[in-house]
Amino acid sequence: MLNVKGVVLAQKPVGEQDRFIDILTAEYGVIEVLVKGASKISSKTGSATQLFSYAQFSLADKKHGRARILGSVSPISIFYGLRSSVTAVALASYFSQIIGFSVLPKDGTPEILRLMLNCLHFLSEKTHEEHKLKAVFELRMAALLGFMPDVVMCRKCGTYLPAELSFSVEGGYFCCRACRDPESLAQWIDMPAASLQAVRHIVLSDFERIFSFRIGEAAQAPLYAFAEAFLQYHIDRKFPTLEFYQAISGNSVLS
Predict the structure, then answer these.
(1) What digits encode the pLDDT tens for the residues 154-195?
(2) Which of 71, 84, 146, 180 shows its CA 20 to 30 Å from the CA of 186?
(3) What is the CATH number of the domain that holds 196?
């Protein structure tokens, strides 16, 4: 029997009563689990195995194909407040798709699990603005996957904090606005110094502090646009959940 704590990222019905779920764990990455009888009215596993639930799972040693079979489950947090907002559910689904695509089974992912749980908590409690949570998730996730942007200084002149700069989505570095090659056909996102400071905070701060920053209105759009474009480019994937979130929230940072 394998005992793990994890959050449910995805679920898929199989047959009339059973369900496959994908669980993000700290020790083993994403695990596929078969929940027998999940759709029964009398099921004791329903709430603890629903989407975005965080629970303690006991998994049998025997498998159904690649999937382990659920023995028992005890809920830790269901994040009830999340379901009162359609946009929050859509954004959580986007986070789940990113993790499901980029995290392999048997990968140790304690920081990714922690990031996801914090985002689910803040979405459920509505203590942080959704676009800010989205940017923090995207940039920190990119860093955890090995795509750390170079935020130290202008690539050409070495200036630490230019008043205006351009960030290269492909290269993951920035240049002073005057240093940027005007002939370049690469994707650049212009931003003020405050946006750069926010990027630095998100990717370099200790985990306890990554959500603790303020950003002025003028610096928000460039930060949000860069975070989304940078992660999408480097994992080379577009997600339908992001399109859905943008459609229902009315916010498309790259439009």
Answers:
(1) 999 999 999 999 999 999 999 999 999 877 768 999 999 999
(2) 146
(3) 1.20.1440
CA distance 25 to 96: 13
CA-nearest of 176, 25, 15, 183 to 103 is: 25
Structure tokens at 227: 């975070």
Distance of alpha carbon 197 from the chain centroid: 21
Q: Which amino acid appears at position 248 of this protein?
A: I
Q: pTM of this prediction?
A: 0.93
Neighbours of 2 (CB within 10 A): 14
DSSP 210-225: TT-----HHHHHHHHH
Report residue 120 as tokens.
């689910």
Residue type, position 94, single letter = Y
Task: Give the end-to-end CA distance of the chain in Å, rounded to a whole number.
Answer: 49
pLDDT at 109 over 90: no
Total domains in the chain come to 2
